[in-house]
Structures are given as C-alpha cells and as structure tokens.
Amino acid sequence: MLLRSKSVTRRLFVWFGVCAVGLAPGALGQTWALIDVPGADSRPPSSDTDPTSINESGAVTGFWRAIPGEILSAGHGFVRDPAGTVTTFDPPGSTGTFPFSINAAGAITGYYQGPPPFPSPLHGFVRSPDGNFTSFDPQGSIATNPQSINARGAVAGYYNEANRIVHGFVRHPNGNITSFDPPRSMSTTPVAISARGVVTGSYKDANGINHGFVREANGTIVSFDAPGSTGTIAASINDKGAVAGSFTIANTFQVFGFIREPDGKFTTFDSGGAIGINHEGAVLGTGPAGSFVRDPGGSITLIGNAPMQFFCIGGTTATSINNAGVITAYCGGPPFLGFVRYP
Question: DSSP H helical segments within the chain, as ranges?
Fold first, then answer.
C-alpha cells in the first residue's frame, strides 16, 4: 500500500523547517491539477482541501474543511476520479469526516466523529466504491483511526481505549477485527497494509523510544530499528514488502529516511524522511528543501511548488504517490489547497 498517514507528513514538515539543500529541482513539464471540491473555495480566503491518498488508477481521496486551518471545523470526505470529477461524502451521523486511504477498487477508509454531545467518539468507516458505508470499532475503542486499506479490503489502523492506551488493529474483509501490540509496546500505531496483509507501523516503548515493526498476515511481529537510530517511524509498505520511513540519530538535528527490504536489509538516505513507497521502489519524502521523490536508483528530485496561478500561500507538501509516479500534494497553511501532480 502507498502512503497511509498524513499525520506523518505534517510531522516531518514541521521537523524540517524551510532550510534548503543541494537537490535536483523538479523536472520541467510537470502537470499540476487543482482538486476542485464542490463547496470549497480554491482561492484565498478559501476552504482547506487536504488530499491524503491516491490509488493506481489515479483516484484521490482526502478531506476538506469550510474554515481554513481550523482543526475543530467539521471535515468532509471527497473522492476525485481520474477524470477530475469530485464527489463529497459523509458517513451517516458524521459531524466530521476524515478519509485516509483509497484502494485500487476505490474503497475508502478513514474515521468520522459521531453526533453531539461532544467530545463524541471517533468511529472507523469503509466507503465502498458504490458509495455505501460500513461503520466499525474495535472492542473498547473510544477513538478508532483507520489508516490504510489494501486491495482485498483489509484495513489497518489504531484505536484508543478509555485509559488512553493505543493499540493496533486489522479489520479483515469479512468484518472481523484483530487487535495487536508488538512486545514491549506502550503505544502501537500501524499506518499501512500491503495486498498480502502485511502491516507496518511504529510503537513506543517504556522509555518513549519509537521502533518500527512489520506484522505478517499470520500475526508474527518483527520489530526493527534503522541503523544507528534513536527513534524509528515506519510510514509505508509496498506490495513487495519494502517499508519506508524516517529515523533520527543521537546528537543530530537531522531526520533521515530509510527503506527496509523484506529480508531486513536497510538503505538509508539523508535528504529527509520517507512518507511513501510505491511498487517500483520510488520513495516519496519530505526534507529541509521540501518534498522529493527518490527513484529506485537513489537519485533525488524535488517536487517543487505548485504553479503561481493557483495562489498558493507557502510551500507545497506531497502526501501520496502511486505506481505511475502520480503524486498528491497540498500547499499553503492555512488555507490548504489540494493538487494532483503528474510526472
């Protein structure tokens, strides 16, 4: 699966700041398409439009808010088909909808907030390609956060119990839910699931240190850390089982990226943290110079900023990449404008 968690994207963007490094600029001739959500302005002062995931055919999901930058403003879901037609949606009873992943068939997962009184629980949902909704929660959950849906319809994510402990879960295509935690985990946050049902994510130990993990479809969990890491955050897994993410090293202020192959071999790079990896092994990341693509040979190309005619305020941050190298991104902050960038 491709990128699963926009929270990882924004966290890395905040860490890196805006200092520049010597990377290749994006190639000329790229095509940028504004995601024009019905009901959301596309020019300042505008609504926020936040794309979070793109599938193999180029369909995009995400959310938009009527009040720019207002976290408490009710979000609404959208899906943009490859032709550019945008459909907005909300699960029944939703007072705030936040999709995070779309699979090859067009099924979407995410969470929504229930009706008042507030604070009301967060519930997981799956929206089928024909627009029908299924709501779900692991047993004991007060906040369900689905992060990724694979080609078979299995969903991975995490949930909070009333005691604030965070656990991982897999919702199987038949609707059964399995909760899990790696050994020594005090907080488990799965973020992506492959077509084979392999889940990746991170967990925090008793010392507050982040470690990566891979959970096989049979439930076997392997913990890992990037070489020299003092904190490892997995962000994405492709259908070959390669994991991409970020890590830190003691006594530095730099965030590094990594690729972990299925056999456990690591490749690291210093252009920034990885947030997505596609089937070909191209990595999407965010670093001090902005968002970038690292090709399978190791070359780094900056995404660059959205064209000036879109009235972006601030830089452009990529969020998801598909196997064809088509990327979703947003610019500004606030308001956020959503885009699709074609190679």
Answer: 6-16
What's the number of CA atoms in the CB half-sphere (13 Å) around residue 47?
Answer: 17
* Type of residue found at 3: L
Collapsed DSSP state (helix, strand, coil) of residue 304: coil
Question: Alpha-carbon distance 235 to 156, whole Å?
Answer: 13
Query: What region, left, alpha or beta, does residue 58 occupy, with left being phi > 0 and alpha being psi -120 to 50 degrees?
Result: left
- Centre a 10 Å sphere on the Cβ of residue 318 and count the other Cβ atoms it contains: 25
User: Both tokens of residue 220?
Assistant: 């076997």
Check if the beta carbon of residue 152 is closer than 8 Å to that of residue 173. yes
In a domain, 278, yes or no: yes
Q: What is the mean pLDDT of each run of 10 residues along the chain (343 residues)?
A: 45 37 48 86 66 98 80 83 96 96 99 86 98 98 98 99 96 99 98 98 98 99 98 98 97 94 98 98 96 97 87 87 97 85 94
Quote the CA–CA distance of 331 and 316 in Å, as a whole number. 4
- Widest Cα–Cα separation across the chain: 53
Q: How far is CA 256 from CA 246, 268, 298, in A?
A: 5, 7, 14
Residue 115 lies in a domain: yes
Token output for 134: 């299924």
The answer to whether the CB of 135 falls within 8 A of the CB of 155 is no
Determine, yes or no, domain membership for 1. Answer: no
DSSP string, 26-42: PPTT-EEEE---TTS-S
Q: Residue 145: give its domain's CATH number.
A: 2.130.10.10
Split into its structural domains, the chain has a count of 1
| pTM, 2 dp | 0.90
Whether 296 is covered by a domain: the verdict is: yes
d(CA 205, CA 32): 42
Give me 180's structure tokens: 């899990």
Domain containing 21: what range? 6-342
CA 258, CA 126: separation in Å to the nearest integer?
31
DSSP string, 286-297: EETTEEEEE-TT
Q: Running DSSP on this structure, what letter comes out for residue 24?
A: B
